[in-house]
Every structure is written in structure tokens, then in C-alpha cells.
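Below is our example:

___
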Amino acid sequence: MTASRPIRQDYFFDSERKSRTRARIAFATIALAGLLVTYFLDTALFHALYVGKDQDWIVESKAWYQILRQTGDVRTWLIVALAVFAHAFWRAFGGNSPRIRLGGILTIALAPVFSGIAAELLRALLGRERPLSETGQFQDHVWRPFLSGIYHDKVWFDISNLGLPSSHAAVAMAGAIATARAFPGSGIVLVPIAVGCGITRMLSGRHFSSDVFLGLVVGWAVSSIVAAAFRRVR
């Protein structure tokens, strides 16, 4: 009877590394494909969803609109992070709930912040204007010279009327993914809400669908990076 060969410990590390690599490739592939699809559908989706100048203020006054839109505000997720921290603090002094890692709390607080910053930087780099010009007229895809958002005509970091990607969508998705990591299962509710935040920006005519899609991708990616950075923080 022959003894079974011991499994090398590094086998598991190699397997995990390959799994992560495949996941990243799949994410990048889906992101690129989605960006191309939404890019070519931008004009059609804009005209289908934009409520118009006469109706936008009515839609924006609705409670459901504001609930969705405010998930794209960094302050919303800072409040969520504070609430989770308060719960964790209570847990440390005799509560019975499962322990929540400090790294998870930091991710909820910081991932939306970094995602918003990343989205604003990408706007300056890519230089694509919003669907509506500064006079309120539809203008399809209008690109400024590359890097002109960083510096142009002696002006630094001018991102006025630039829309690619949507920072609201990026912040909302980052917060949703960060919270879903801390509370498994909650993403079933939070991710669609983040998508809804992006849709509100299309209803008001502020963004193309590709702006929103890229914002969601940025939020997901940045949140994953921040979560990995704080993975060992207990």
C-alpha cells in the first residue's frame, strides 16, 4: 500500500493566485465590452431616458430620485461607516453580534472617497464633455484635447462640463461593494441601488450611459483595491 504524496503548501497559493488573475481578466474583459456597448448606445439611451429641461426639476424633487442620487455622495457612506463603527464599538464592550473588522469599516469610509477622486482625475484625463452643452443643447460625443482638463490656456484642472466617468456612479458603487464585503449578502440590495444612482444622472441629462458604466467600473475596482489594502487590518 503506497502512501499518498503530501500536497505542497505553495500549491494552494499558486491556485489562489491563478484564480485571482482569471477574475481580474474576466473583470477587465466585461468592463471593456460593457464600455463599448454603452458607448454605441449613448445617443439612443440619452434620448430614451432624459426627461427634458421642463421636467427635470420635477423628477429631481421626487423622494425616490433623491434616495438613489444621494448614494453617490461621499458623506452618505461616511455616515454608514460611522454607524458600523458605533456597532463595532458596542460589540467590543459586551455585545453578542459577530465581530466586524476595522479594515471593513475603513473600506466603507475610504473607498467612496478614493473612487470619487479617481473619477475626477479620469475626467480631466479623458476630456469628454457631458451630453448637454453649457447652453443646454444636446451635443453627442464631444472630446476636448487630451489632457486639456489637467492644464489648458494657463488654467489647471478645469473639468467644467466634463462627464466621463460619472463620479456619482463611482462613489455609489464603491460604497455598495465595500459594504457588501463587510456584510455578505447586502450587495443584492446595494449594487442595484448604486446602478439606480447612475440612472438618475441620465434622467437629468447629466451623463451618457457610458459615463455611468465607467463610473460603476471605477467604483468597483477602487473599492476592491482599498479592501485588499485593509485586508489584514483587524
